[in-house]
Structure formats: C-alpha cells, structure tokens
C-alpha cells in the first residue's frame, strides 16, 4: 500500500495535507535549519484539525545531530508533551561524536516514547556506513527511516535507497 507523508510547518499545510489525501503528517518548525520541534500550541491545534496521523519532530535545535545531556532532557520533555497530546508518532535522529548512530541515546528516547511509532530522520545521511546504521536502527525498533541515501537529494541517492530496501 502506498503512503504519502507530507512535511508540514504551518496550519495551511496541515489543512492541505488532509484535503490532498496524505496518509501522515510530519510536523515541525524552522525549515531553514532542517526542522525543529514545533510549539505545544502548534501540536495541539494540529491534532484538533487533522484527521490523519501526526508525527512530530523531536529536535531542540538545527545544526548537527550530536546532543548534550541538557538537549536530551529537552527532547524527553517534548516526548512527554507528545504523549499528553496523543501524538501518533515521533521523528528524531541522534548521532555520537563519531557521526554514528548514538544507540544509547536513541534507545533512551524510544523507551520514553514507550516504543510507539518512531521514524529515524535524515541524521542517517551523515553516517559513514549507512547500511550498518540502518540495521542498528531496525534493531532499536524504529518503524521507518527518512533518508536521501547519504546524498543531498533522494534523486541523487536513489541507488543507495534502493539497495537499503533489501537490507
């Protein structure tokens, strides 16, 4: 079954995604920096007006994907808010100082999320061995991965993406 997820960062895009036949919404703010966690008010309103599942990005800031303890605490608090608002899924990615998947931090956030649906986002495109990392992400329990195959665009990384489908 084909699924269409629409990235939304404002109310109009949420309304249009619902009208246009989207299967799911990825909700975020701050597109210029690659997306960050939306406000409580935005999440609440999105749940009120949307008939389709909403996945919220859990990312305290733009830039790299190596987070401090304080930033991880913020991410945990944002996950608590998502529970409170009955958000359908979350989207995040955490790397370690070597630009590899930070298994311990990801596992901690997934447990905080109570292993509900989660997507590992484009942080995967910065690792040295994407195939090895995909297997780690699967083992952690993420249901899907958002990737451009390690390239700037999915079109450029299409060969890698197709290879990863076999993993």
Task: Return the CATH topology.
Answer: TIM Barrel
Query: Which CATH C-level class is it?
Result: Alpha Beta
Tell how many strands the DSSP assignment holds.
Answer: 6
Strand content: 5-15%
For the largest beta-sheet, the strand count, sense and barrel status come to:
6 strands, parallel
How many domain regions? 1
Radius of gyration: 15 Å
* Gross morphology: globular
Question: What does this molecule look like?
Answer:
- There is one protein chain.
- By secondary structure, this protein is α/β, with parallel strands linked by helices.
- The chain has one domain (about 5-165): Copper homeostasis (CutC) domain (TIM Barrel, Alpha-Beta Barrel).
- It is built from 6 helices and 6 strands, in the order E-H-E-H-E-H-E-H-E-H-E-H.
- The chain has helices at about 10-20, 40-50, 70-85, 105-110, 130-140, 160-165, and strands at about 5-10, 25, 55, 90, 120, 145.
- A 6-stranded parallel beta sheet has the order 1-2-3-4-5-6, with helices on one face.
- Strand 5 (about 120), helix 5 and strand 6 form a beta-alpha-beta unit.
- The longest helix has 16 residues, at about 70-85.
- The chain starts with a strand and ends with a helix.
- The relative contact order is 0.11.
- The model has no long low-confidence stretch (mean pLDDT about 95).
Label this structure with key terms.
alpha/beta, globular, 6 strands, 6-stranded parallel β-sheet, TIM Barrel, 167 residues
